[in-house]
Amino acid sequence: MGEVFGDDITLASQYQGPGTLDSILNFPVYGALVEAFKLPGNANTSGLAHAHDAMKATFRDVTVLGNFLENQDLPRWHSLSVDPQSL
């Protein structure tokens, strides 16, 4: 599993496949998850669905992407949402 930082689905998908990596961290869905579930927020679940559909159409295999909600490169959930239970 590798790391391709950013939410550009087309760019990230180029790092999965023959001669590249089997899997990468799922940075493209991170922003969509935050926009869908942080409080207060806009509850943009349609953006999450759009990202999911775009990834299914672009990535070789979305089932092996490494999903996450926090890491050392991004703000922690408790600093984004007023409700830690929303995580």
How would you describe the overall organization of this protein?
This protein has 87 residues and is mainly α. It is 39% helix and 0% strand. The two termini are 24 Å apart. The mean pLDDT is 90.
Which ranges are low-confidence, i.e. pLDDT below 50, for 5 or more consecutive residues? none
Count the beta strands.
Answer: 0
Mean pLDDT: 90
| Binned strand content | under 5%
Order of helices and strands: HHHH
Shape label: globular
Brief overview:
By secondary structure, the protein is mainly α. It is built from 4 helices and no strands.
Ordered list of secondary-structure elements with their pairings:
Elements: H1 9-13, H2 27-37, H3 45-58, H4 77-80
Helix pairs in contact: 2-3
List keywords for this structure.
globular; mainly alpha; 87 residues; 4 helices
